[in-house]
């Protein structure tokens, strides 16, 4: 009984500051900031022939997810085609995105920086080419970005 209570409390989300909706497609991610109007974009991996010297091969994207640090963040995850897995190892976040289902989790980023991840589900031939990049910035810069 105590472990079930703990699992329930871990899944409970206490008033998140921002809700981010993530949709997995073959072979890219779509993001929607649900709390703001008209902030939606697709995030594709940067092809090797278009990379700069400071990009990471197979990990960098054309549109990064910008999130404020020191904020409770809720993420809603779904898929449009097959099962994907939205994974950021440095944040301890891994959640499956399943077509027809809306999964949710939360996390708290306590430092600025770039956090890299990839689809970790065997969702097809190019699943390893679905990188995720989160850029954590101070809240005042996030407000200016918005």
Automatic annotation (TrEMBL):
Its cofactor is Cu cation. This is Cytochrome c oxidase subunit 2. GO terms for molecular function: copper ion binding; cytochrome-c oxidase activity. Signal peptide: none annotated. It is found in: Mitochondrion inner membrane. One of its GO terms (cellular component) is mitochondrial inner membrane. It catalyses: 4 Fe(II)-[cytochrome c] + O2 + 8 H(+)(in) = 4 Fe(III)-[cytochrome c] + 2 H2O + 4 H(+)(out). Component of the cytochrome c oxidase (complex IV, CIV), a multisubunit enzyme composed of a catalytic core of 3 subunits and several supernumerary subunits. The complex exists as a monomer or a dimer and forms supercomplexes (SCs) in the inner mitochondrial membrane with ubiquinol-cytochrome c oxidoreductase (cytochrome b-c1 complex, complex III, CIII). Its EC number is 7.1.1.9. The keyword Transcription regulation does not apply. GO terms for biological process: ATP synthesis coupled electron transport. Keywords: Copper, Electron transport, Magnesium, Membrane, Metal-binding, Mitochondrion, Mitochondrion inner membrane, Respiratory chain, Translocase, Transmembrane, Transmembrane helix, Transport. Residues 15-146 form the Cytochrome oxidase subunit II copper A binding domain. Pfam families: COX2.
């Amino acid at each position: 009984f105590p472990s079930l209570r703990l699992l329930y409390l871990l899944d409970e989300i206490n008033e998140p500051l921002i809700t981010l909706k993530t949709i997995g497609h073959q072979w890219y991610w779509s993001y929607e900031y649900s709390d703001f109007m008209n902030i939606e974009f697709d995030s594709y991996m940067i092809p090797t022939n278009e990379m700069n010297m400071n990009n990471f091969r197979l990990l960098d994207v054309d549109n990064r997810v910008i999130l404020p640090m020191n904020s409770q963040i809720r993420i809603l995850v779904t898929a449009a085609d097959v099962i994907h897995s939205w994974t950021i190892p440095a944040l301890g976040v891994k959640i499956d995105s399943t077509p027809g289902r809306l999964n949710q989790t939360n996390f708290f980023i306590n430092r600025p920086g770039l956090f890299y991840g990839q689809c970790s589900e065997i969702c097809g031939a190019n699943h390893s080419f679905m990188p995720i990049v989160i850029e954590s910035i101070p809240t005042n810069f996030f407000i200016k970005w918005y």
